[in-house]
Amino acid sequence: MYKITARQILVIALISGLFAAATVALVDRLSNRFQPAGSAFTETSPAGITDPGIATDEQNNIEIYRTLSPGVVNIHSTTYARDFFGFVEPQEGSGSGSILDQAGNILTNNHVVERAERLSVSFGGQKNYAATVIGRDPDTDLAVIRLVEKPREPLTVVPLGDSDKLVVGQKVLAIGNPFGMDRTLTTGVISGLQRPIRARNNRQIEGAIQTDASINPGNSGGPLFDSHGRMIGINSQILSPSGASAGVGFAVPVNIAKRIVPQLINSGQVLRPKLGITHRNVELFKNQLDLPVSEGVVIWQVAPSGAAGRAGLRGLTQTENGDVEIGDIIVAIDGDKVANSDDLFRLLDKHKVGDTVQVEIVRNGRRVAVPVRLTEGPDARTVFRE
User: Fold this and answer.
1) Active site residues
2) What is the pLDDT of residues 366-377, one digit of tens each?
3) How is 165-208 classified by DSSP, letter by letter?
4) Cα gap 135→264, rounded to integer Å
5) For the stretch 264-284, what's the b/e string if a residue is b when 16 or more beta carbons lie within 10 angstroms of its beta carbon?
6) Domains of the chain with CATH codes
7) Does residue 88 contact residue 81 with C-beta atoms inside 8 Å?
8) Which terminus of the chain faces fewer neighbouring Cβ atoms within 10 Å, N or C?
9) Distance between CA 161 and CA 231 in Å, rounded?
10) Torsion over CA of 88, 89, 93 and 98, rounded to 10 degrees?
11) Entry pTM
């Protein structure tokens, strides 16, 4: 039998301990390196905010502003354009944003930063910190920017709530920078839920939060909080004839941000399944063509390398005698009705790249179900330059 001395046991124990420590450190380092970006979100209610059930309304307002306003930034954007005489003139813009993590990632609206050639961020006061765009999603009007340089002190991270649990009438608070004024607090209630609003590219944003808390130019991209201090929406739009607050504001639900922000941080974009088509709503032709259905989406053009093209779906075609035949009309996906393009995008967004869906079409007056494997491209707007 092999014998081992007490000294050898101590040496082996020491080496084993060092090896274990190094292994733990390596695993921890690798797990941090490859940790999904979304896991960095803070969802715990911040300390320093008394339970709103026992606090006065005034106390709740004060505590939320004092605790969370340091995590709300003022975003300054600069674009350069030539005037009538050819001189380059800077054009300034501003908006708001919320600190997501200690890496300096900031959530804001896409329309705040989409044309910016230079970005800076302020935490109140005169000092500005350079920032850069990490990712944009025009379809939800959300974007993530990141501080190039950061303050010496730790950043105040804004915690995220759950926008699926909201009810009409509950209190909300907005912190932002209206008209460039740093960190302004306004309060109100949730006036409505599931409001359909449109991004600037005309894509519908599902389930927006309506509030009567004052939202003005400069509030865009800033957080809408619940009374526990959790961000439940991103202030994005107002409905106002004058352009100023009229008590009807809209916020993108934070659960949409939870879904897409990790993709923006990791890859700079959101990969959505696409059919690779251009299309028109059937409704547009109701007084011009005698179509076999009153609702649906007419396929106008098909990218040969796209999902629809590979599945054999057809767009407009020209006959031998020069007539133009209408393309396939999409009327359902997996049994869910498609009345217009809003329905089409909404149903596609429920799936991911690689899924196979049953696309029900009307072709030559007959309904046919065609299996289509969804791909991430090509983007029809790019292929057909629309």
Assistant:
1) 111, 141, 220
2) 999 999 999 986
3) G--TT-EEEEEE-GGG-SSEEEEEEEEEEEEEEE-TTSPEEEEE
4) 5
5) bbeeeebebbbbbbbbbbbee
6) 36-270 (2.40.10.120), 277-383 (2.30.42.10)
7) yes
8) N
9) 5
10) 40
11) 0.78
